[in-house]
Amino acid sequence: MPHDFQISHDSQALYITLTTQHRLPVFRSDALKTVICNAISEARQSAGFLLFAYVIMLDHIHLVTDQPKPVSEVLRIIKGVTAHRVINYLKENNHLVSLAKLQHQVRERNYRYSLWQRERNVFPIFSEGLFMQKVNYIHNNPVRAGFVEQAMDYHWSSARIWRRCPAENEPLLVDVEQIRWRRSR
After folding, report:
1. How far apart are CA 167 and CA 174, in angstroms?
2. Residue 12: its pLDDT value, please?
3. Are 49 and 65 in contact (CB under 8 A)?
4. What is the Cα 2 distance to its own chain's centre?
5. Overall fold of domain 13-178
6. Short-list 34, 111, 33, 43, CA closest to 73
7. pLDDT of residue 1
8. H helices present in 11-164, as ranges
């Protein structure tokens, strides 16, 4: 059951950016964007985090979450579940060229592929102002990239939900209603 969340120094949100290996445009197709959205939803259930905002771009994703566990644990679950689902999709659908680009020498646990770059790109958010700055940045990412003219027109983000105009087929729901604001919005 989702819990309420209030942004503070003691209860920080996380601004997470995950970038694909070599900035490969893995998420070009709607099918792969659907896979990554479903995987984020699965990771969210597994780790027990709230998801406040997101965007899926061609070679990276941005998320704003709460932090119910240590940052390393949240990242491990998000990266692990999403990489596993995307790589399985590529294998099942014979996307051999894409798999070859993600392949590396066998590492610990016999992993042959890496979807995500290894750096840890997580930024703590401890104020409502910074929180909204990151949400707006995320939602305007497709506009800056030239994909759409208005953030709400990009299907693979939480912009419509934040504007209270969700589509019937939202690819990923967010927990905006769980935020307890200090100031009325």
Report:
1. 13
2. 83
3. yes
4. 18
5. Alpha-Beta Plaits (3.30.70)
6. 43
7. 45
8. 30-47, 71-92, 96-102, 128-144, 159-162
Contact between 78 and 85 under an 8 Å Cβ cutoff? The reply is no
Picking from 85, 82, 86, the residue whose alpha carbon sits closest to that of residue 26 is 86
For the chain, give every domain's residue range.
13-178
Q: Name the residue among 47, 15, 154, 29 with its Cα closest to residue 86.
A: 29
Q: What's the pLDDT score for residue 26?
A: 95
3-state secondary structure of 125: strand
Going by C-beta distance under 8 Å and a sequence separation of 6 or more, which residues neighbour residue 62?
15, 16, 17, 53, 54, 55, 134, 137, 138, 141
Q: Are 180 and 50 in contact (CB under 8 A)?
A: no
pLDDT along the chain (185 residues), means of 10: 64 92 95 98 94 97 92 93 96 92 71 85 91 96 98 97 94 91 65
